[in-house]
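Please review this pair:
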Amino acid sequence: MTVPFEYNGLGPVHGADYGRTVASANDVAVYGGLCALATLTRDELITQVFEAASLEPHVRKAISLFTTAKYQACLDLLRHYHSDWCLDVFLGASAGGSQTHVDALFARIREKSITAYFSSFSEVALTSLASTFPPTSSSPTAMEDEVISMIESGRLDARLDVVNGILVAPRRDVRRTTHGEALQAAREVERGLLLRLHGVNVVMGGLKVPRGHPGGGGVGVAGGAWE
């Protein structure tokens, strides 16, 4: 994503002007920014892309919106350039079926946005989710179908209450976690007590480790019988 300025001035290489016939530096920056937005985590976007890479202004703004949890604004901004990117020789190429590469990237970015948004809640109504992320289809069950597809594919860790139209986050087994932590603490206390008891037995048995003995750390017997 960091494209050297010299890329634009290479001129023809082996008879091909890559800056004109393949991709310009700006094109490469757009490709890299969209791929990063579709695949990297928020922290990776900040450290590896936003702070380090040379990006097109609108792509940089989209990444900035995503990393500040303004997901719908990010998607709206990307959608504004969708028509232009569909005309790109690479982004507009078929990715299988009727979907182009830019459509596939947009779908991944949308799924990432929904997942990141939902991670802040224990449950979210589908109507609220649909108002934040308007469905891409006019079907009345579009949001429900999209969520079910994400859950079944493992891209969204949640369960759907179809009757009440609520997306519910998985419940954490707090009781088991608490019991595990208590058991670990008990083991540590037990180990500490055993070490103390061992020290008491050493003293009561007449054995001790002398401190500061010029000859080193030999074992001594109380009363000076053996030192």
In short: The mean pLDDT is 80. The first strand starts at residue 123 and ends at 125. The chain is about 55% helix and 5% strand.
